[in-house]
Amino acid sequence: MSDATPVAARGLVKRYGEITAVDGVDLTVERGDVFGYLGPNGAGKTTSLRMLLGLIRPTSGSALLFGRDPLQVGARALDGVAGFVEGPRFYPYLSARRNLRLLGDLDGGVPSSRIEEVLDAVDLRDRAKDRVGGYSHGMKQRLGIAASLLRDPQLLLLDEPTTGLDPAGMRDMRELVKRLAGEGITILLSSHLLAEVEELCNRVAIIRSGRIIYEGLLSTLLESAAGGFRLRASDPERARAVLLARGVTGVSLVDGELCFQAEAPVVEAATIALGAAGIGISALVPTTATLEELFLGMTEEEAA
Amino acid sequence: MIAVYRWEVLKLLAQKRTYLGLGVAMLVPLVFTVVLIFQTGGPNDIPLGRYIRETGLALPFVVLFFMSIWAFPLITALVAGDIVAAESHNGTLKTILTRSRDRGEIYAAKVLAAFTYTAVVIVAMGTVGVVSASLTWGFNPLTSLSGTTVSAGHAFGLLAASLAIYAWPMAAIASFGLFLSAVTRNSAAAVVGTLMWALFMQLLGVLPGLEAIRPYLLGEQFQAWHGFLRTPADWTPVVRALWVCALYVVVPLTAGYLVFVRRDVAGE
Question: What residue numbers bound the domain in which A265 lies?
Answer without folding.
Answer: 227-287
